Amino acid sequence: ALAIADLPRWRRRIVQVACSQVGVVESPIGSNRGVEVDAYLRPTGLSGVPWCAAFVSWVLREAGLEGRYHASAAQLLRHLRPVVSPALPGDVFGWINPDGTGHCGLVVGVGDALDVVATVEGNSANRVRVCWRPRMGLQFGTVEPPDSHRPIGIGAPLVERSVQADGQTR
Question: What is the pTM assigned to this prediction?
C-alpha cells in the first residue's frame, strides 16, 4: 500500500481529517441527523437528508481546501476533476445511479494490486466508517491542490519528509 507519509501535505490532511470522523453515528439511527451530521449538512442549507456528499465537502473544507458544499454525490463528482491515473489517498470516489442518486466518500488507501481502495464514507450504514471497495464501477475525482503559499487547515502541523542525497530520510 502507498505510504501516506509519501503524499503531498494537502492529501495527508484530507486523510487525517476524514479519519478523525470515523465513528460518528446518526442520532437517532436512520434519521440523517445528529450533532455532527447536522454540522456536515448545515452549509448546504438542508437537514435530515442523505449526507455523504456533505461529509466529503466538510472534510475538504476542514482540510484547508476551498470549494463549495455539495448536497448530492452526483453534483460533487461532476464538479471534480476526473482522476486519469490510479486513485490516491485524498481523492473522492463515488458512483452515480441511473436515477441520478449516488454515493461518495474519500479514498484513504490503495490496495497493493490497485483493484481495491480503502475509503472513509459518511452516511454509510448510518455512520462515518472505513470500508474496502473494489475499484470496478467507481468514479474518482480530485480536488485542486491548495495554493502553496497558504497554510493548510487547522490542528497540529504535519511533518514534511525529504530524502537526502545520501538516501537517508530527514
Answer: 0.83
